[in-house]
Design a protein that fits this description.
alpha+beta; Pnp Oxidase, Chain A; 8 strands; 8-stranded antiparallel sheet; about 35% strand; about 200 residues
Length: about 200
């Protein structure tokens, strides 16, 4: 990784990012040799990534042909616009973010009880304000859909929160974001004000 100051090395932080996300981007290798990217709703559960899909389609065919996949989740934070130190010009524009990348192996989950358990975890992750009942293995939808599991082999993550800047510069940007008060600015300001790169 070129920007070592952005690298997250704590496995707990990487797993927290995966648990926090709800939409990820699945990368498979197409029949033509080109990468094929698909956004999917997912859950990080029991150390693995699960998502559901139609039982046929390009990503399923790609996985069946080559089960090596890449999975990415990103969290755009505040955008540093020209309102912050405009004398710097366009070169001062900057996007703060967090992201995590998983390289691993994908497989189709075949056993009905395992599919239902993974789907229950997926529903619970997306329905945080309620307590949905567990998905029953004999539900028609369980049979009709495909459930894919990704077993991570390598996980890497980055957080760009101006870690290479001085505490004074980070605090100045945090103050600007609090005053600007766009969606996400408050949370980003709180993260900038921390002395480490833990999740806000």
């Amino acid at each position: 990784m070129r920007r070592k100051h952005c690298q997250e090395t704590d496995p707990a932080v990487m797993e927290a990012l995966l648990r926090q996300g709800t939409i990820g981007r699945l990368g498979t290798t197409g029949r033509d040799g080109y990468p094929y990217i698909t956004p999917v709703n997912y859950v990080f559960w029991k150390g693995r990534i699960y998502f559901h899909s139609a039982p046929q389609g390009e990503k399923i065919e790609n996985i069946q042909r080559d089960n090596r996949v890449c999975f990415e989740v990103d969290f755009p934070l505040a955008y540093v616009d020209l309102g912050y130190r405009p004398q710097g010009g366009p070169c001062r524009l900057h996007q703060l973010y967090r992201c995590v990348i998983v390289r691993g192996r994908a497989r189709l989950v075949e056993e009905a009880a395992e599919k239902a358990a993974a789907l229950s975890a997926l529903v619970a992750a997306h329905e945080k304000e309620s307590s949905p009942p567990p998905v029953a293995p004999d539900l028609a939808g369980v049979t009709a859909c495909a459930v894919i599991e990704i077993t991570p082999e390598r996980i890497s993550a980055k957080s760009d929160l101006w870690q290479n800047k001085s505490p004074e510069e980070r605090q100045a940007l945090a103050s600007y974001l609090l005053q600007r008060n766009r969606p996400g600015d408050k949370e980003t300001a709180q993260a900038l004000s921390r002395t480490d790169s833990k999740l806000p």
